[in-house]
User: What shape does this take?
Amino acid sequence: MAQILSSLSDLHLSFLRSSVSASQVSSQLFICFIIKIPWYAAYPEGHAETHLDEDTELEYLKEKVDAGGDFIITQLSYDVDRYLRWLKKVRQKGIRVPIIVGIMPIQTYSSFLRLVKLSGCQVPQHILDALARIRHDDQLVQDYGVKLAVEMIQQLTKEGDIQGFHFCTMNLETSVQRVLELLGWQGIGVSTMKHPSRNPPGNLSTRYPQTKRSSF
Assistant: This one.
């Protein structure tokens, strides 16, 4: 079953989506937490505060899932190829529960650098180079972040055994709205979400009003 998980504000609340409009998000959140769906976190690039090797991390993940977890939500990552390699190893370990990918659209250059430092995630050089060229223009950085998120989701849904996505908004939900629009995922059913358009509609440079600023 295809699922989308989304964060609201800085709380990173998650909801399971089957076919949900934006106006129904709050009720879906409420239902998810009332029934207390058990899930576990996973770190495709390793936990920032530990120094465990990948095999040990995977063993711990399997133990948690075997203890009763219904699905996994991963830490955010910008390296799709590395993520896909990690996903293959997870399945080889016999972990079969749905995996939800953490996605965080880039908002500003400075907040992106802080995020990378805090999370310890590895960023492909071509992304760093692209951001360095536009680092002084917040709108261009945000547009690039939307485009990158769309491309990552398209590759992950095409090449990986992915059941959904967990969008981290950090109080800046407009970029996530743009990503969903460009994928054609707003107000549609499950069957369509599994095959996002390879050429999403819309202009990535369109300027959307931003109502809140991130303190991240």
